Amino acid sequence: MRTKSAVKLSLVLVAIIMLCYVALFGLQIGLYEIVPLGNEVRQGLDLRGGLYVVYEAQTEPGDPEADRQIDGAMRVMRNRLDGANQHEATIARQGERRIVVEIPGVDDPAELADILAEPAVLEFIGPEDDVIITGRDVRVAEPGFGDAQRPVVNFELHPEGAQKFADATTKYVGQAIRIVLDGVTISEPQVRDAILGGRGFIDGMENMEAATRLANLIESGALPVNLTQLETRTIGATLGANALEMGLLSGIVGIALVLIFMLLFYRLPGFVANISLIVYLLITMVVIVASQVTLTLPGIAGLILSVGMAVDANVIIFERIREELRLGKTIRVSVDTGFSKAFSAILDGNVTTLIAAIVLYYYGTGPIQGFAITLIIGILASMFTALVFTKFIMKTLINLNIYSNRLYGV
């Protein structure tokens, strides 16, 4: 039993050390590379810098369709940002009619802000000034190259639009169909043959960048409601870098002081708590990266707060163990009883905080949600490490016949 416990403890410690190394410095094995976790964390606007835009929807007071239209506008914005490779951008509703968009790390704020509110009304107009199809009839639009490697926008129509387009191109063979975007003719191709398959292309693009922008606008569709841009702010990367540096420094100093305190005051259980805290940090960072949570400065505050809660859970457990030891019980019985008595207190404290964090996330916006989501992740990770991992290490140490009360601070 003792040898088996020693092997298990050694393997766990070695695994933790290896995971810490990979998390901090990454690892490359042949063609496979694991980058450091810090490089994979999505940084929010307050850390990375970027664009902050506030829009207001022009809806009538009491309009029953207002909520649906604003939600639709947010979906269109999300599609456009994704099309522009701005996957880290956040879009949140503020109040009844306002939409807040935060786009970290943008290169051209003015152009991106224009794309977000661009109405993108696309029409195919026949020689008789009749509207054949609109952008709503387009199912897929993507940039590509046509004849002589010139940029074009290839498109595919929905079945209904494909039929209307087939009828019109059959009727207007040899004539021109104007392609109009927001009232401006961007292309006027001549119909050579009837287009019966629902597929075609738009030429006349100056370059591939223009073709990509037009394809994104067409595919995302028109905004279902008019938006007025109320505020635009560009946050510099220097401010974000300073905020991140100070946040990390405070976190490192706080965690270091906690580790020292736990080791000096609780001795062997304190050493176990420190290992659990390291495991907690690893789990938390992996979950943040895997779930693609955008880390903000309030989010860092949520992480630091959850560190305190993780340590607090261990303190409750160790104090219960000490009480049992002072009553003259054995180490093994004291540990089992300590975890049993501490469970309800830990569960109650964490669940109440978890409820508050969920409410903040559900009703809050922007920074409040950033704080809430990291706090939720931290609470769940701290409960697991305190009630499962810490208990596993403590029982393993007992199986190694480490029974001295002095090592437990009694």
Give structural notes.
With 410 residues, the chain is of the alpha+beta class. The protein folds into three domains: 2-41 and 238-408, Up-down Bundle (Multidrug efflux transporter AcrB transmembrane fold); 50-118 and 225-235, Alpha-Beta Plaits (2-Layer Sandwich); 122-220, Gyrase A, domain 2. The protein is built from twelve helices and 15 strands. It has a four-stranded antiparallel β-sheet. The chain has a four-stranded antiparallel β-sheet with strand order 8-7-11-12. A three-stranded antiparallel β-sheet has the order 9-10-13. 32% of the residues are buried.
Radius of gyration, whole Å? 30 Å
Q: Give the CATH H-level superfamily of the largest domain.
A: Multidrug efflux transporter AcrB transmembrane domain
Helix share bin: 55-70%
**Beta-strand content:** 15-25%
| CATH fold type of the largest domain | Multidrug efflux transporter AcrB transmembrane fold
Number of helices: 12
Report the mean per-residue pLDDT as an integer: 80
Uncertain segments are none
Question: What would the keywords be for this entry?
Answer:
single chain; 410 residues; alpha+beta; Multidrug efflux transporter AcrB transmembrane fold; Alpha-Beta Plaits; Gyrase A, domain 2; 3 domains; 4-stranded antiparallel beta sheet; 12 helices; 18% strand; elongated
